């Protein structure tokens, strides 16, 4: 196996690369920065520029599997220009990859796994969403994910497996949303957002990386939710975060209108409620290390607390 990864230098990409390197699986990666190109044993970089449909086709040499994580962050103010970047960065990356495969030849490719997002599901306080849900969230993010997955589906014309992982709230110490959520708690000004009743379907970074590798190893096809088995409300997440960090929560909930004034339309990310099921990926044989928010946060902020338990779990990393 040799894996080509887009977005390899990002939060999720680094975690996936780490798993692959543990198994001594060579990695090729695509980067838009020539300064980030390196060539060392088992880890080789290649230049691409999806904005201009440019890709170094040498990146496909010897590759048997592809993981696509490319796309600019959605966590910046949703101005018209940023909205365009959020959408086009995802679509152009996939188009450039696909056209590169056509030019190079895809005969040796066995599997393609792309990131997607649970933002496609409608905001609801009562629904539990599974992958075959037909209704789409009436928001900018919903529109983005629909276009994103349509482009992913175009890889179905090739003769290899194609899977999309709908990612939820990724929990990690040094990236993603968690540090921003933890900062006010650490400074004694943490509080649930709005009513606090909105569902947040989360996943520990380690489990998410394992899902991508699992999808390749098990030749998965179709759409899978990349979330842990037990979603929590924003209020529950905030309270558990404060408990883990041993900080008090004394302020009232943050009013919705204040965050709208500060963040504009992007504040929707904080109030959208998506309770999402992990049953499909579990039925495929995937076993989560972190099934509840307590163990996930303890692993991040109190690594010694569950060190012994984690050592036993590592035996099945690639099962």
TrEMBL record:
Listed InterPro entries: DUF1731, Epimerase_deHydtase, NAD(P)-bd_dom_sf, SDR39U1
Q: Where is the DUF1731 domain?
A: 254-299
The record's section on Gene3D superfamilies has: NAD(P)-binding Rossmann-like Domain
Note the superkingdom of the native organism: Bacteria
Transmembrane residue ranges? none
Residue ranges of the NAD-dependent epimerase/dehydratase domain?
Answer: 3-225
- Family, per the entry? Belongs to the NAD(P)-dependent epimerase/dehydratase family. SDR39U1 subfamily.
User: What PANTHER family is this protein classified in?
Assistant: EPIMERASE FAMILY PROTEIN SDR39U1 (PTHR11092:SF0), SUGAR NUCLEOTIDE EPIMERASE RELATED (PTHR11092)
**Name of the protein this chain belongs to:** TIGR01777 family protein
Q: Which organism is it from?
A: Croceivirga radicis
């Amino acid at each position: 196996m040799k894996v080509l990864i887009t977005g390899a230098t990002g939060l999720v990409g680094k975690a996936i690369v780490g798993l692959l390197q543990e198994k001594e699986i060579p990695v090729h990666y695509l980067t838009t920065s020539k300064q980030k190109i390196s060539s060392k044993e088992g880890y080789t970089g290649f230049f691409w520029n999806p904005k201009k449909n440019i890709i170094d086709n040498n990146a496909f040499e010897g590759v048997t599997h592809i993981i696509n994580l490319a796309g600019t962050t959605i966590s910046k103010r949703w101005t018209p220009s940023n909205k365009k970047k959020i959408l086009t960065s995802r679509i152009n990356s996939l188009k450039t990859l696909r056209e590169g495969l056509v030019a190079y030849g895809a005969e040796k490719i066995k599997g393609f796994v792309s990131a997607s997002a649970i933002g496609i599901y409608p905001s609801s306080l009562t629904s539990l969403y599974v992958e075959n849900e037909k209704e789409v969230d009436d928001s900018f993010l919903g529109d983005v994910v629909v276009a994103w997955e349509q482009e992913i589906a175009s890889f179905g014309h090739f003769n290899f497996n194609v899977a999309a992982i709908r990612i939820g709230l990724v929990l990690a110490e040094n990236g993603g949303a968690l540090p921003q959520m933890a900062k006010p708690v650490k400074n004694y000004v943490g509080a649930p957002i709005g009513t606090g009743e909105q569902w947040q379907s989360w996943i520990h970074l380690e489990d998410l990386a394992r899902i991508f590798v699992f999808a390749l190893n098990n030749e998965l096809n179709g759409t899978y939710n990349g979330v842990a088995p037990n979603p929590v409300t924003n209020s529950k997440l905030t309270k558990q975060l404060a408990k883990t960090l041993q900080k008090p929560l004394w302020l009232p909930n943050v009013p919705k209108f204040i965050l709208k004034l500060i963040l504009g339309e992007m504040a929707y990310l904080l109030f959208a409620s998506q309770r999402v099921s992990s049953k499909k990926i579990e039925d495929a044989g995937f076993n989560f290390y972190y099934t509840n928010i307590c163990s996930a946060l303890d692993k991040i902020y109190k690594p010694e607390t569950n060190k012994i338990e984690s050592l036993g779990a590592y035996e099945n990393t690639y099962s």
